[in-house]
Structures are given as structure tokens and as C-alpha cells.
Specification:
heterodimer; A: alpha/beta; Rossmann fold; six-stranded parallel β-sheet; disordered N terminus; B: alpha+beta; globular
Chain lengths: 565, 96
């Protein structure tokens, strides 16, 4: 299983004498890495010295957090571990948010950090920090490499761990003396990944439970995407004819316009999706974790439903809601194992579709200003199947999930678990570099955009043909909305009306830029955005009073949705 | 007070004990006592834990520990005879 360098790489499996820093670079090459994202500094200088003459393309971001998000954006598109590199101390701490974001959304990532010499570790040396300890709660695994000769094995293992099973970030902290020392080493080819075999008896039991249900409902989560099981799950859903709801992370597992798809469930989910969950007598949960944003008050979530829960990670089964049947296994295998299940549920299906038809999204907002949901819908529809919307966090994030059209899950990149403002711009850079043919649109609010605005310089440096949209309500809109609804309109520190002229800022970074202020400018603006070949920026001004609807109040049941009326 | 006892066999790798302790406290449990001994090519840790509140399930914690890379096995040795209180557990400091 852990064979050393084999015939599938160009690396000769013979002992070689190399400096640690060169081993790092060659070991990355041996794992098939072509692109890394990073920022140099003192304790990682030997690695940067080795990078300069290597085959690796290094993308210099303008902040380590940007590098982590860009690497994860690359990974979210490719399904393989992205790589980010930073120095010790502040370089490492700046990576932490990106690593944590990858951890919460189960994104494979390998983060390499420099560390001070082992001789001074523990002495409060310059730019020394306990990176291993700081990142421990937010990594799948981590290493401090103490011996140069361990580097090939550690790096190969890191990729296997990051990608295998439930993916996640792996940190490799490398003291500077380990980077500088020479050692005789053999490089490792990519290691095999183990697969969890689903228990056949449990699968049969699950099939029986599904067959006996009168009102079954698929509840899809991002685990399907991470498992690479989208095709199999789509086939299963279509074979069974069962209505389907999906979490934020699973948007696109079924195309938005699929006839069995009822929309997103949860806090800002569709009314018909939430009502279907509340009435279902069986939830078939695939790769979802009963996140509080999806369930609302867990005690009242799907009160009539038995649970059949499929997940690669056994610790998710029964974590928040007991499962009547829990199946731990690879989701593609689980889906294939259920293909013969076809319950008789026509009345329930008709009821769900009638409910969906009764509660369509509305786009008839009054006034001359831009209505964000209509703008986003039109943007995604005009971009078509190549559309990749990279959301930031806040109101616009929910509007994207609710109103954009997604042909596949990679069409919707969003920080679901950690909810990190500043996510979109660097993630969009990584996504566009991973899939140059896609129409990648980074969409931020004015608050989040300012949190990683420096990455406009990265776009300009590499001429990344990313489309950047800032939806500007001059507010921290989601916080403002909650203050309006739940804090007696006590608007505290949400006014951002002193924002700079974003289009001017973008131009200063070398992007073509323009502003859309009126509804009648939207179509032309979207055409300009989509038809511009290079990096382009659209500043979209909206009314600060626009809210996201529907909304399940915090702590309430999903049955208690608030709406605009 | 609810106390559950786990026996955790791990590789003998630096950082593993810290990782176990991190998971226990991160996932809403307190470490009440801990004993480590060397076993053949590895280490065995006996750890007694109690939950922050009545919503924590020891089987979920067991699985979360089993996922750790250098953990070979986790055994639940003794189930507490006391069900977790819905309202409060004895605070950490008092237990010490």
C-alpha cells in the first residue's frame, strides 16, 4: 500500500543525496504537484531557494491567508490536495484561517510552514510560534519534521491523509536546519488510498427502510462532492424518483433545475424544501452532518422522520441525530448498492412538486435600483454550464445559493462551515487557475471584499482572467439584517458607507472596472463582465435595506420561517 | 458525576497525546485523569472523561478519537452508571 517511488512518476526510485529544501520540492513534484501558492519569509527561505529552479509554478499571493484560500480553491475544483507555503511565526498564523476553513469544509490541503532551527525552538526565537499546537484543532493531521531523511515519507503521507476518506488539511512544519541539512533519500510516489467498504447487511437494511417509506426525502451534503460520488448519487436519485433537498455545500449535486430538486434546506432554505423535511417520514442522509444552519432547532427537525444516514466518516453518524440505520462507507458504493430501490411514492412526489410550484422565487422588486437576487440569477444563467460562482460570506452568499443556477457542485464554492469573510477573492484565483476554461466569478460583499482586497495584486501579477463582482450595500448586510430583526433595529457598527470607490481601486490594481447602479444597467453590465477576456471588476450597488428571505430565526424550528410579507 | 473510561492504543509518535487531549476538550469533554504506559512499539493511554453537558455521546467521541492518524484503537472500558445531567456537570475546577 505504501510502495516507494514506482513506475508512474518520472522520479527515479534510487537513493539520492539532497538538501532538505530540495527534497521538499522534489517530493512535491513526485506527488504530481504542479502549482503551489505561498509567501516567502525567513524560516522558509531554503525551500524558496529550491523552488526557483524547479518545475513547480509558485503563485505569490499578497497575504498568507490568500495563499491558503487560493490553494483550497484549487483543491475544491480539482478534488486533489492544494498546496500552500508560508514562513514561521506570522506567516504560519496567517495561514490558520484558511486551514480552519478547509477543515470545516473537509477540503484536502497540504500546508507547509517553515520553523526556526530546532536548536532555538522553545526559546521564543524571532518569528517562532508553536504552529503545530496552534493548528492542532483545525487539521486532520500534522507533523514537525525532525530529521531531513523523513521528508519524503512525511510529504507522501500528508497527501494521502489529506485526500483519503473524509478529506482535510495536513500541516507540515519544517525547521530551517532540517531544510538546510543534506540526507540520502528515496522519493515516494503517491500512496494508495484506502476505501471503506459499506456493510452489505446495513445496506440491505437501508434498502428495506426506504422501500417501506411513504414520504422519503434525500438530504444531500457536501460529503458527496468530497467523495467524488456525484454521478452515482445523481443516478440513485433518478432511479428512485425520490424528492431531494440539499445543504449549502451540496448545491449542484443535482442541477438547480432538476425536476426532483426542491432546493436548499435550512436557515435560508426554500420554503418547500423545509416543509418537505418537516413532513417526511424518512430522511435519506448522504454526506451531510446535521449542521445547525441546515436543521434549525435540532429537537424539532424532521420530527416524523426515520433516519438512514450514509457517511464515509463514522463519527458523523448519530452525532447530532440518532440514525435508525447508519451506513459507513464510500458514498459511490452506497449509491450503487441501492440502485434497485424504487418505492411507490407518487402522491408524496406530487405533493412536494405542488408545494415547490406554489412558492417560486420572486424577482419583481420595485424601484430603479439593482435587485441582487435578480442580478445573480441572470449572471449565472447567462454564464451557463461553465459558471463557477465563488461566494464570500453574508447576505450575497445566501442570495447566490438561493438564486444562481448550478450545473455541478464545483459551480458553487462557498465557505459553509467556518463562514469566512474574505474567502471569495483568493479562492476564486485558485479556482480559475485550476480550471482555466470555467467562467469563474468571485462574488463578495463590500465587507468581505476588503478583507482580502490585496489579492487584486495577485490577479494583476498573473493576469488571472477572473471576473470579480462586489455587491455593495455599504453595510455588513447580514449583521444589519439580524440587528433589524432580532436586536430592535439597534444598528451597531455595520455602516460601511465610507467605503472607497471600489471601481477606482480595482483600476489602480490594473483591472478593467465599472459600476452598475440601476436595474436597467444590469443586463449590459453582465454582458460586459462575461465578454471581457482579461481580469474584470464589476461594482454593483444595491439598496442597504434588501434582506435575505426566507429566514428561520436562530433557535427556531425550520417550520417557523419568516418571510418578507 | 458522569465518568467514562477509554483505553487508547497509539503509535509512539510525539504529539499524539496532545492531539488526543485536544480532541477530548474540543469536542465538549473534560479530561479527569490520564495514565500512559509503553506497550510494544506504541503507547496505551487510559483516560477518564466527563461531558460538559448531557448532549455529548461517548460513542461519538470514541469515533472522533479513532479517526486520529496515530491512534490504533479506542476501547470503551467502563460505562458510567450515571447518566449525564441535562443541566450541568460538576465544573472542572471542583473535580480537580
Amino acid at each position: 500500500m505504501t510502495a516507494q517511488a514506482a513506475a508512474n512518476t518520472d522520479i527515479e526510485p534510487q537513493m539520492q543525496t539532497m538538501r532538505g529544501a530540495d527534497i521538499v520540492v522534489h517530493a512535491l513534484e513526485a506527488q504530481g504537484v504542479k502549482t503551489v501558492f505561498g509567501y516567502p519569509g525567513g524560516a522558509i527561505m531554503p525551500v524558496y531557494d529550491a523552488l526557483a529552479g524547479s518545475s513547480l509554478k509558485h503563485v505569490l499571493c499578497r497575504h498568507e491567508q490568500g495563499a491558503a484560500f487560493a490553494a483550497a480553491g484549487w483543491s475544491r475544483m480539482r478534488g486533489k490536495a492544494g498546496v500552500c507555503i508560508a514562513t514561521s511565526g506570522p506567516g504560519a498564523t496567517n495561514l490558520v484561517t484558511g486551514i480552519a476553513d478547509a477543515f470545516m469544509d473537509s477540503v484536502p490541503l497540504v500546508a507547509i510552514t517553515g520553523q526556526v532551527d530546532q536548536a532555538v525552538m522553545g526559546t521564543d526565537a524571532f518569528q517562532e510560534i508553536d504552529t503545530f499546537g496552534i493548528t492542532m484543532p483545525v487539521v486532520k493531521h500534522s507533523y514537525i519534521v525532525r530529521h531531513t531523511e523523513d521528508l519524503p515519507k512525511v510529504i507522501a503521507e500528508a497527501f494521502r491523509i489529506a485526500e483519503e476518506g473524509r478529506p482535510g488539511p495536513v500541516l507540515i512544519d519544517i525547521p530551517k536546519d532540517v531544510q538546510n541539512k543534506e540526507a540520502d533519500v528515496e522519493l515516494f510516489a503517491p500512496l494508495d488510498h484506502t476505501r471503506a467498504e459499506a456493510d452489505e447487511e446495513a445496506l440491505a437494511h437501508a434498502a428495506d427502510v426506504i422501500m417501506s417509506a411513504q414520504k422519503p426525502l434525500f438530504y444531500l451534503g457536501g460529503g458527496i462532492v468530497r467523495a467524488g460520488a456525484v454521478d452515482e448519487v445523481r443516478a440513485l436519485i433518478e432511479a428512485t424518483g425520490i424528492p431531494t433537498v440539499a445543504t449549502l455545500q451540496a448545491q449542484g449535486v443535482l442541477p438547480t433545475d432538476h425536476p426532483q430538486f426542491m432546493g436548499m434546506l435550512g436557515m435560508h432554505g426554500s420554503r418547500s424544501a423545509n416543509l418537505a423535511v418537516q413532513e417526511a417520514d424518512l430522511l435519506i442522509v448522504m454526506g451531510a452532518r446535521f449542521d445547525d444552519r441546515a436543521t434549525g432547532k435540532i429537537a424539532t427537525f424532521a420530527p416524523n422522520a426515520r433516519i438512514v444516514h450514509f457517511d464515509r466518516d463514522v463519527s458523523e453518524i448519530g452525532k447530532l441525530r440518532d440514525a435508525n440505520v447508519g451506513v459507513c462507507g464510500e458514498l459511490d458504493d452506497c449509491a450503487k448498492g441501492l440502485m434497485s430501490v424504487k418505492p411507490a411514492i407518487q402522491p408524496w412526489f406530487d405533493q412536494c412538486m405542488a408545494s415547490k410550484a406554489e412558492t417560486p422565487n420572486r424577482y419583481d422588486a420595485p424601484g430603479e435600483g439593482v435587485y441582487a437576487p435578480r442580478f445573480l440569477k441572470e449572471l449565472s444563467e447567462k454564464a451557463g454550464d461553465k459558471f463557477v460562482g465563488v461566494a464570500d460570506v453574508g447576505q450575497h452568499q445566501m442570495w447566490i445559493a438561493q438564486h444562481c443556477r448550478f450545473s455541478r457542485p464545483q459551480a458553487h464554492l462557498t465557505s459553509g462551515g467556518l463562514g469566512t469573510m474574505g474567502f471569495s477573492l483568493p479562492t476564486g484565483i485558485g479556482a480559475k487557475m485550476a480550471e482555466p476554461d470555467a467562467t469563474v466569478v468571485s462574488i463578495s460583499g463590500d465587507g468581505g471584499f476588503m478583507m482580502n482586497i490585496q489579492e487584486l495584486a495577485t490577479i494583476n501579477r498573473y493576469k488571472v482572467p477572473l471576473k470579480v463582482v462586489v455587491i455593495d450595500n455599504s453595510r455588513l448586510g447580514m449583521v444589519r439584517q439580524w440587528q433589524e430583526l432580532f436586536f430592535d433595529e439597534n444598528y451597531s457598527e455595520v455602516d460601511l458607507s465610507d467605503n472607497p470607490d471600489f471601481a477606482q481601486v480595482a483600476r489602480a490594481f490594473g483591472l478593467e472596472a465599472f459600476t452598475i447602479r440601476r436595474a436597467d444597467e444590469v443586463s449590459e453590465g453582465i454582458d460586459r463582465l462575461l465578454n471581457t477576456e482579461g481580469p474584470v471588476f464589476a461594482h454593483v450597488v444595491i439598496d442597504p435595506a434588501q434582506n435575505v428571505w426566507p429566514l428561520v430565526p436562530p433557535g427556531a424550528s425550520n417550520a417557523e420561517m419568516m418571510d418578507e410579507d | 458525576m458522569t465518568i467514562e473510561t477509554l483505553s487508547i492504543e497509539t503509535d509512539n509518535v510525539n504529539g499524539t497525546l496532545r492531539r488526543i487531549w485536544t480532541i477530548i476538550e474540543q469536542r465538549g469533554w473534560y479530561v479527569r485523569s490520564l495514565l500512559v504506559e509503553e506497550v510494544e512499539s506504541g503507547a496505551r493511554t487510559w483516560v477518564q472523561v466527563s461531558p460538559e453537558d448531557g448532549r455529548r455521546q461517548i460513542h461519538t467521541l470514541r469515533h472522533q478519537l479513532e479517526k486520529l492518524v496515530n491512534v490504533r484503537s479506542v476501547e470503551l472500558l467502563e460505562r458510567s452508571r450515571v447518566q449525564p445531567s441535562v443541566f450541568e456537570e460538576i465544573p472542572y475546577a471542583e473535580a480537580i
